[in-house]
């Protein structure tokens, strides 16, 4: 199983990983950060497509070893589902961390991001929220040609409300880092527990 903890920059993904690495999982689990494979200075959407395909392969390697992969990174759901090898993954669960534009800007400034990049990150965060709620929301943002040969047709005709397009959403504006980590841990444990029991996961509240 691939458990993706995603969201745009500033939502709180990086602070969650250390907690996830300390969890006593009910199954064998690998935890990883998307950017740990190395991010080039000119990284763009096309680069991300290739990186997502690389992580899909790693999820399959974990699957073959009888393990699950928890991946933290800025991965839009549509890109993950379109990755060539994603359809071979037994199961995928997605949790999006989100925050308001004001909070995102404050966090990015606080961590020292270049001032000229912050408006782009804020705008991408707003697109990310719309995309995760509705597969038909401005798909042209990610549907670009790349060497990964993405399979956009897998979800290209899906509409808002399609049960195959599902993600837990955790709004982090008013949460401490510890509270965010706890919420994500509870989501991941629930996803794994229900999968191992062979019953459907409960819908997000």
Describe the structure.
The radius of gyration is 16 Å and the shape is globular. Helix 4 (101-110) crosses helix 5 (118-133). By secondary structure, the protein is of the alpha/beta class. Helix content is 38%, strand content 13%. It has helices at residues 17-21, 45-64, 77-82, 101-110, 118-133, 177-197; strands spanning 2-6, 29-33, 68-72, 92-98, 168-171. It contains six helices and five strands. The model is unreliable at 197-205 (pLDDT under 50). It has a five-stranded parallel β-sheet with strand order 2-3-1-4-5, sandwiched between helices. The longest helix is centred in the last third of the chain and has 21 residues, at 177-197. It starts with a strand and ends in an 8-residue tail after the last helix.
**Distance, first to last CA:** 22 Å
- Shape estimate: globular
Detail the poorly predicted runs. 197-205
Order of helices and strands: EHEHEHEHHEH
Oligomeric description of these chains: single chain
Radius of gyration: 16 Å
SSE topology sketch:
Elements lengths: L1 E5 L10 H5 L7 E5 L11 H20 L3 E5 L4 H6 L9 E7 L2 H10 L7 H16 L34 E4 L5 H21 L8
Parallel strand pairs: 1-3, 1-4, 2-3, 4-5
Helix pairs in contact: 4-5
What is the compact description of this entry?
The chain is an alpha/beta fold and 205 residues long.
For the structure shown, list the relevant keywords.
205 residues, alpha/beta, five-stranded parallel β-sheet, 6 helices, disordered C terminus
């Amino acid at each position: 199983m691939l458990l993706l903890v995603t969201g745009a920059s500033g939502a709180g993904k990086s602070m969650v990983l250390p907690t996830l690495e300390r969890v006593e999982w009910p199954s064998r689990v690998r935890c990883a950060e998307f950017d740990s494979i190395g991010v080039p200075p000119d990284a763009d959407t096309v680069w991300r497509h290739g990186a997502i395909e690389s992580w899909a392969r790693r999820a399959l390697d974990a699957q073959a070893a009888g393990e699950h992969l928890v991946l933290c990174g800025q991965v839009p759901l549509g890109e993950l589902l379109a990755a060539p090898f994603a359809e071979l993954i037994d199961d995928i669960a997605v949790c999006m961390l989100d925050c308001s534009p004001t909070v995102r800007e404050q966090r990015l400034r606080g961590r020292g991001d270049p001032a000229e990049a912050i408006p782009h990150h804020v705008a991408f965060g707003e697109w990310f929220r719309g995309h995760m709620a509705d597969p038909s929301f401005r798909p042209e943002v990610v549907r670009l040609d790349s060497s990964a040969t993405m399979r956009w047709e897998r979800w290209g005709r899906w509409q808002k409300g399609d049960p195959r397009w599902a993600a837990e959403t955790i709004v982090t504006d008013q949460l401490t880092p510890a509270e965010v980590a706890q919420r994500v841990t509870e989501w991941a444990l629930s996803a794994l527990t229900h999968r191992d029991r062979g019953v459907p996961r409960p819908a997000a509240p």
